[in-house]
């Protein structure tokens, strides 16, 4: 059923995500997944193909190009979803972006899955597919060999009768799973650190525990941060599981707090963390690309532990992008409190993008700074 003209992978872009050397919109694992699943997709009825973890749309758009109708696609990252929409418009194809829930995989006959880095994330996804997909579903789960492990086979075998392994090609490989059984909805892991309850679905940064960088930041946040009103909430940017937002809400019982992350699994985890700490009524958690939902010069306080991964790639382009949007959203004189790996030497970037920056704390690995908006 494949058309004569090959799919124009070269037209796909990562925008609005970071673009740069080593950061690609499509790779050999995407191509291998499409090739390995071609026969299964050719027999699939409309609306029965699901794609999960599609970085910037190569899998979903590749399937649509080959004739699939009603392809459902979930991407954890909001910027990936936005890039998919742009890429779909560029190549003139339609797919359906969906949240990762029972309806996303219900009655699916073919699932294309880019293997997540986290085994817990894979376990959540596999369980959902096994619970709600068609009993005859075939799952094609692929990735770059350097990011794969034998443990991934074992996780799939927990809820599938059979897992086959393809030959490697261009340092990529695909696992093919059949015979779903004993699936279920994901349940967040639970942890506690002092008075702070943490909840984390599979794949959330640091899981249900406090990472050491965030711990250092929490220990040095100001005792009376500016803002905290409905019109000027305290902001936890790139919130992950919501540890900073929950800490702020617990420490300042009258404050209004807003947390955001571009990751859907982080947002779900942070919302569960707020419920566990009894502060969900005062903490708004939203999925957002940086702070795009906020007007210019609208807040006085932002806390940030910036990520340094874009998918599987390590990149130093992500943090400056977050610094810039924090600077845009901060009022003059407002403060960005940031923790970062000292080896990354972000201070000059913070000085340039936000304003005067001073070191508040430093340990063997991390630095905490506060930058004042010019």
UniProtKB/TrEMBL annotation:
Give a single Pfam family match.
MTS
Looking up Gene3D superfamilies in the UniProt record yields: Vaccinia Virus protein VP39
Kindly list the biological process annotations in GO that this record carries. Answer: methylation
Chain ranges of the Methyltransferase small domain: 197-369
Tell me which residues make up the RlmG N-terminal domain: 11-177
Keywords on record: Cytoplasm, Methyltransferase, rRNA processing, Transferase
Read off the SUPFAM superfamilies from this record.
S-adenosyl-L-methionine-dependent methyltransferases (SSF53335)
Q: Could you tell me one molecular function GO term of this UniProt entry?
A: methyltransferase activity
Against InterPro entries, the record matches this protein to: DNA_methylase_N6_adenine_CS (IPR002052), RlmG_N (IPR058679), RsmC/RlmG (IPR046977), SAM-dependent_MTases_sf (IPR029063), Small_mtfrase_dom (IPR007848)
- Disordered as annotated region, ranges: 1-20
Keyword Cytoplasm found? yes
Q: What protein name is recorded for this chain? A: Methyltransferase
Q: Which organism is it from?
A: Microbacterium dauci
Taxonomic lineage of the native organism? Bacteria, Bacillati, Actinomycetota, Actinomycetes, Micrococcales
């Amino acid at each position: 059923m494949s058309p004569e003209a090959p799919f124009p992978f070269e037209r796909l872009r990562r925008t609005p995500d970071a673009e740069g050397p080593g950061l690609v919109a499509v790779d050999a694992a995407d191509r291998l997944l499409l090739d390995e699943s071609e026969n299964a997709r050719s027999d699939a009825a409309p609306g029965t193909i699901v794609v999960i973890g599609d970085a910037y749309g190569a899998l979903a758009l590749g399937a649509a190009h080959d004739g699939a109708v009603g392809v459902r696609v979930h991407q954890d990252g909001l910027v990936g979803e936005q890039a998919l929409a742009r890429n779909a418009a560029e190549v003139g194809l339609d797919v359906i972006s969906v949240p990762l829930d029972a309806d996303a995989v219900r009655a699916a006959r073919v699932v294309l899955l880019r293997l997540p880095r986290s085994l817990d994330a894979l376990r959540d996804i596999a369980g959902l597919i096994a619970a709600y997909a068609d009993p005859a579903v075939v799952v094609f789960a692929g990735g770059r060999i350097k990011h794969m492990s034998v443990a991934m086979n074992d996780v799939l075998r927990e809820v599938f009768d059979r897992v086959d392994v393809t030959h490697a090609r261009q340092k990529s490989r695909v696992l093919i799973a059949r015979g779903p059984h004993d699936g279920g909805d994901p349940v967040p892991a639970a942890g506690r650190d002092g008075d702070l309850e943490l909840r984390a679905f599979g794949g959330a940064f640091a899981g249900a525990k406090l990472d050491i960088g965030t711990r250092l930041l929490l220990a040095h946040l100001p005792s009376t941060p500016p803002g905290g009103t409905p019109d000027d909430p305290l902001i936890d940017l790139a919130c992950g599981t919501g540890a900073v937002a929950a800490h702020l809400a617990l420490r300042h019982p009258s404050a209004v707090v807003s947390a955001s992350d571009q990751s859907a699994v982080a947002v779900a985890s942070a919302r569960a963390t707020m419920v566990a700490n009894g502060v969900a009524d005062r903490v708004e958690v939203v999925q957002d690309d940086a702070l795009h939902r906020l007007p210019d010069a609208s807040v006085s306080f932002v806390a940030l532990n910036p990520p340094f991964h874009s998918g599987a790639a390590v990149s130093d382009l992500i943090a400056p992008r977050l610094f810039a949007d924090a600077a845009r959203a901060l009022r003059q004189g407002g403060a960005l409190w940031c923790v970062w790996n000292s080896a990354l030497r972000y201070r000059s970037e913070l000085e340039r993008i936000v304003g005067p920056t001073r070191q508040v704390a430093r340990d063997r690995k991390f630095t905490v700074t506060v930058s004042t908006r010019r």
